[in-house]
Amino acid sequence: MPDDQQFESVLATYQDKVFRLCFAMLGDRAAAEEVAQEVFLRIWKALSRYRGESSLSTWIYSITRNACLTALKSRSGQRSDSLESPGVRAAAERAASGPRTPDRQPDILRLVGQLPENYRRVVMLYHLEERSYEEVALMLDLPLGTVKTWLHRARKQLAEALVEKSS
Amino acid sequence: MMDEEQALRIIDDELEAALAGVAAPSHFAGAVRQRVRAGRISPLPEILDAIGWAAVMAIVLALLLWFAPMAQNAWWVMGIGALVAVPALLVGWRLGAEPAE
């Protein structure tokens, strides 16, 4: 059995990061919460076997990505996982906690939802993780250069869409 | 007319406002702990299993001794011993097994 104290420490340190990674990958707050809980259950079961061959964060993010991919695969037959689907979009809207103008916020999230999946994840995670390229690269297990390139292209696509929309 | 640089600023501001500060809900850690508690393996079913097996083996042994008093033969004793030991080992193995990843 894993050490409860060790697990509590992992839970306290990583709960927000794991939740945000799930949210970026799934685009749905409710699904992110469910999968993030599942991730911590897996961590609890496997913690005693963690040998420290990779860093703890790398190990945790790898478990998280796998859980998200499994969740995406299992629901892909049931419904679209795009931010365009009404349930997902509503959940994405609920993600905002600041004082937002209700009619503007869905627009940007809808535009993000129209991006290719890999761009969408990078854009969301970049903003979720306070604009840290390194953190995004670590969480998605991507080279730093790839993160920067995808983010640049994604922002360009978003800007073009916004300019087009305004004209 | 909006230019691309303006659009990028708006995008950054909008996404920042929509996504910065998103965190696990306040009940999250409690829900995880609850699921962890539910996921713990209780030894009680295994102990009850072991008691049940021991009772069955004791009855079998008593019947054998009653109907076939050749239990003094060492092979018989070893056979009966194995019948008790194998389930005990299985129970022990299950108790010690880690849940699969």
Keywords for this entry:
heterodimer; A: 167 residues; mainly alpha; 8 helices; 74% helix; elongated; B: 101 residues
Give the SSE map:
The complex is a heterodimer of chains A (167) and B (101).
Chain A: H1 4-26, H2 29-46, H3 56-76, H4 86-95, H5 105-113, H6 117-128, H7 133-140, H8 144-166
Helix pairs in contact in A: 1-2, 1-3, 1-6, 2-3, 6-8, 7-8
Chain B: H1 4-19, H2 28-39, H3 44-67, H4 74-96
Helix pairs in contact in B: 3-4
What does this protein look like?
The complex is a heterodimer of chains A (167) and B (101). With 167 residues, chain A is mainly alpha-helical. Chain A is 74% helix and 0% strand. Chain A contains 8 helices and no strands. Mean pLDDT of chain A is 83; it is low at 84-88 and 95-105. Chain B has 101 residues and is mainly α. Chain B has one domain (4-92). Chain B has 4 helices and no strands. In chain B, helix 3 (44-67) runs antiparallel to helix 4. Chain B is rod-shaped and about 105 Å long. In chain B, 9% of the residues are buried. The model of chain B has no long low-confidence stretch (mean pLDDT 77). The chains are: A mainly alpha (167), B mainly alpha (101). At the A-B interface, helix 1, helix 2, helix 5, helix 6 and helix 8 of A face helix 1 and helix 2 of B.
